[in-house]
Specification:
The protein has about 300 residues and is α/β, with parallel strands linked by helices. The protein has 10 helices and 12 strands. The protein folds into 2 domains: about 40 residues; about 230 residues, 4-Layer Sandwich (Purple Acid Phosphatase, chain A, domain 2), CATH 3.60.21. The strands form 2 sheets. The protein has a 6-stranded mixed sheet, covered by helices on one side. Helix 4 links the parallel strand 2 and strand 3.
Amino acid sequence: MAIDWSPSESLLLRTLTQQGKNDAEIATEFRQAGIARTYKSIQRKRQREGWHAIIAANPLCAPRFDRPLRVEADRSLLLFDPHAPFHDADWCNRVIDLALSYGVDTVAIGGDLVDFTAFSKWGRQERVEAEDEIASATQFVGVLCSTFRRLIYSGGNHENRLPRSTNNLLALRNAMQMFTNGSKTEVTDYHWFELVSAGERYYVEHPKNASMHATIVPKKLASKYLCHIVAGHGHLWGMTRDPSDNFWCIDAGVCCDPQRLAYTHKVHSTRPQEQQGAVLILDGMPLLVGPGNIKFYERR
């Protein structure tokens, strides 16, 4: 007479089967556990239930990248590509003053806060030491933290230079946190974050791609992710709408001094000249400023 399988026996059989053990191995483990089940009864039960080995879930070392930073701020200032110590202090201070006049309380750095030329695979820039770059970027962040209520800092490709030089033994987040202190700063090692202003969704991006034509990359990103895009990395300046006319697509310009970048001024190329700029998001609406139009908004 067949003896019914208890819930604990069934659970053990299913678990061992899913782990990939064959019927003989399972029978051995049952005997060692003091369970009187024959090889044949194990085989019949497993076949009757349709249990089989299963592929294991990803280990902890293979996480899902599905938790980007989400920020709610009705009024914010977005700065891209300061490339400290090659930042343009006059331009940065000018846009900070403009942002304060509009009641902005949140500031964000959308990547490439620091140039890290000392760790460039293309070769370092002469007379620029790592200590100087770190000190300059730290002072830059300190001023923003003392001026605004909150600072958001997302990664760029230049922040990756130091982790890459260590074969990623130093994590990107740890490299970025070298410049920050205090509770006012939120750091994300994603190269983008979501900004919600008056219900409008913006992705603040330091994308992988760059184009020789302003707004091309943010337009493609807007069409892919179906939200407003404000992008750095391309070092261009421009603002348009996506093909559906639903989303803003903005190349934000740079906060560095282009004439301090050796690779663009000591060697010519066909790429467009870097263009300075910054973006204010005011109650859901974007304001792109540059040296050519900032006077208008300063007067207002």
